[in-house]
Specification:
Elements lengths: L2 H13 E7 L5 E6 L2 H4 L4 H12 L7 E5 L3 H14 L7 E5 L12 E2 L7 E9 L3 H12 L3 E10 L3 H6 L4 E5 L7
Parallel strand pairs: 3-4, 3-6, 6-7, 7-8
Antiparallel strand pairs: 1-2, 4-5
Length: 179
């Protein structure tokens, strides 16, 4: 089995939850993919990092992150996976706040500076693309060049992200989850 196969098994075992829920987009669904159960899991996080690095291996970027909270463990997993590969690739991670911070350094984007850098915007799962596109807007305002968007599970955001002029990839689609 491949890392992708192992990751899909964990997504199905740990993250797919049946029951009526309201998504961050405001849409109502009869099932939910709680990927924090996967991205913060001892076996899931390393797989997330490796699978997403493989997914975007042909894209040139040196920092990864997105809107807090869904993107944070994804970016961290990718940072650690890149370091563990021993190829010498240096990948930084960053966190995009939902709004400007009112104290301290008052930064909207935490971590290494993204100005002038090629970055990848990530999310655990995306239905409308709203969260990741909010992150992209903040990254562009901070002077970053966003090379694309990658998510673990696409619930329908691809069209909106591509309409915004961005490349988009997902490790899994709803069809992969049997939906």
């Amino acid at each position: 089995m491949t890392d992708r196969d192992d990751l899909l098994k964990l997504v199905l075992d740990l993250a797919v939850v049946r029951g009526r829920v309201t998504l961050s987009s405001g849409q109502v669904a009869d099932w939910y993919v709680d990927l924090r159960r996967l991205t913060l899991h001892h076996a899931g996080a390393p797989l997330v990092g490796r699978v997403l690095l493989d997914l975007v291996a042909d894209w040139d970027f040196d920092a990864v992150g997105g809107l807090t909270l869904g993107a944070d463990p994804v970016a961290s997993a990718m940072l650690h996976a890149a370091a563990a590969r021993g190829t010498g690739r240096k990948l930084d991670a960053f966190v995009v706040r939902k709004s400007d911070k009112a104290h301290g350094l008052q930064r909207r984007i935490e971590g290494p500076d993204v100005a002038g850098r090629r970055v990848l915007a990530v999310e655990d799962t995306s239905t409308t693309g709203g969260s990741v596109l909010t992150a992209v807007e903040a990254l562009r305002e901070a002077g970053a060049e966003v090379v694309g968007v990658a998510v673990i599970v696409d619930r329908g955001a691809e069209k909106a992200v591509r309409a915004a002029g961005l490349s988009y990839r997902s490790a899994f689609s709803l069809a992969d989850l049997g939906q």
